[in-house]
């Protein structure tokens, strides 16, 4: 192990030791007391710090961790809404056309991948993509809903579609 890797590992250990308990408590308050989800999100937060290699440069750990945890909470909530909408749609289908559990699982995984691919895009770009592909709204309807021009909607969809294409390509 190099000296830099050792120092980074020590930074992560110190960050975790000093702030993990606080972060779990903060998340529990935000989540209405759900200790299991709070622990999962706290763990995901520290995994993100490790993957980004950002532990050595953190100046204000608690605001940094809280911001990262908020993003993960939002992402988790959005994913749950997406899954719920899909499962609600499946519940309305007649039994003879309901996909098998395997197909349902694959579809949910595909939805998660698209959701993850859309991460990092500006909110209006993501919303335009979802309105076009899930709600099947026209450019004019999307423009009205987002209070932008139809040419902006076209640009948003081009950007989102291209982003998904590259993110989901093997």
In short:
This protein is mainly alpha-helical and 170 residues long. The protein is built from 7 helices and no strands.
Question: Which characteristics define this entry?
Answer:
single chain; 170 residues; mainly alpha; 7 helices; 79% helix; globular
Word description of this protein:
The protein has 170 residues and is mainly alpha-helical. The chain has seven helices and no strands. The longest helix has 32 residues, at 61-92. The mean pLDDT is 87.
Query: What is the helix/strand order?
Result: HHHHHHH
Derived structural class: mainly alpha
Task: Indicate the proportion of strand residues.
Answer: under 5%
- Note the gap between the termini: 32 Å
Overall pLDDT metric: 87
Largest sheet, strands/sense/barrel: none
Could you estimate the helical fraction of the residues in percent?
Answer: over 70%
Would you identify the regions where 5 or more consecutive residues have pLDDT less than 50? Answer: none
What form results from the Cα inertia axes? globular
What's the number of helices? 7
Beta-strand segment tally? 0
What does the radius of gyration come to? 20 Å
